[in-house]
Design brief:
Strand order of the largest sheet: 1-2-4-3-5-6-7-8
Number of helices: 6
Strand content: 15-25%
Radius of gyration: 17 Å
Low-confidence stretches: 1-5, 13-22
Order of helices and strands: HEEEHEHEHEEHEEEH
Helix content: 25-40%
Distance between the termini: 40 Å
Length: about 270
């Protein structure tokens, strides 16, 4: 299936050169029914029979890239089975930066259902991690009474790197870590503060702050969108927004993600 796999193969070739000791596998995540397309994905896992806790990784609007692969490999080194899925290729799209991709949230549950039946996965200990567009999908997937009632198998926790928080109520079904830059002009930190404080939400009246105890918000000063993407270096302008790597913020975020998943997936 060269049309499905060519982009992922190119990305994984780069990843193999960068980390030759890590060798994940390209797989297809089957749909739950005839109308649901299979998803190309990168499966990475620790050595040993398991079962291990697991994480579903969701890419940003630019599609499956080395950021997703880097996080998959890092999470596997920490002891997690990781499934990084490609939501664009099956839909014959190269990006989702102008009109979004609502289907990605449902793809996340498709990946969760796949992992839950694998003998090397702890079905009740599966989290999710999303980047930008994927981070918004994390919030949508975990928001109470939005999408999650449709799926009997649930995510245990989620990490959202610079998501679009506007319109989200922030009433989560599972612990959620949101990491964002103060200077982000694409997905503003102010909207995430409002969500965490109960000032926004399109799905009912504002709730008391105690109802948002499952949202942990970290805002990095002097930090822009895409701060974990090391290839951006000193920064670029894309779609009218400034994107820039921040080594200090990226390292702190990695430490926080590791601690968060240890608390929520291993205990």
């Amino acid at each position: 299936m060269p049309s499905l796999w060519s982009h992922l193969v190119a990305i994984l070739a780069w990843a193999t050169l960068a980390s030759p000791s890590l060798a994940g596998a390209l797989i297809e995540v089957p749909g739950a029914n005839e109308g649901q397309a299979s998803l190309p994905a990168y499966l990475q896992r620790p050595s040993g029979p398991g079962p291990f806790p697991a994480v579903v990784v969701l890419h940003g609007c630019g599609g499956f890239n080395n950021v997703a692969v880097t996080w998959a490999d890092r999470l596997a080194r920490w002891g997690y089975v990781v499934l990084a899925i490609d939501s664009l290729t099956p839909r014959h799209r190269t990006n989702a930066c102008s009109r979004g991709l609502n289907e990605q949230t449902f793809d996340a549950y498709q990946a969760l259902n796949f992992l839950a039946v694998q003998p090397f996965v702890r079905a009740d200990r599966v989290g999710m991690l999303g980047i930008s567009l994927g981070a918004g999908s994390v919030l949508t997937a975990l928001e109470r009474d939005l999408v999650e009632p449709m799926f009997p198998v649930k995510f245990r926790s989620g990490v959202a790197f610079y998501p679009r928080c506007s319109g989200m109520a922030g009433i989560m079904t599972a612990p959620t870590l949101v990491l964002i830059g103060e200077l982000d002009d694409w997905t503003p930190a102010a909207a995430c503060r409002d969500m965490a404080a109960g000032k926004t939400g399109a799905f009912g009246p504002p709730r008391e702050p105690a109802d948002r105890s499952k949202v942990e918000l970290v805002v990095y000063p002097d930090t822009y969108h895409s701060f974990v993407a090391s290839e951006l270096g000193e920064g670029i302008r894309l779609y009218g927004h400034w994107l820039q790597y921040n080594e200090a913020a990226a390292q702190d975020a990695a430490n926080r993600v590791r601690s968060f998943f240890q608390r929520t997936l291993e205990n």
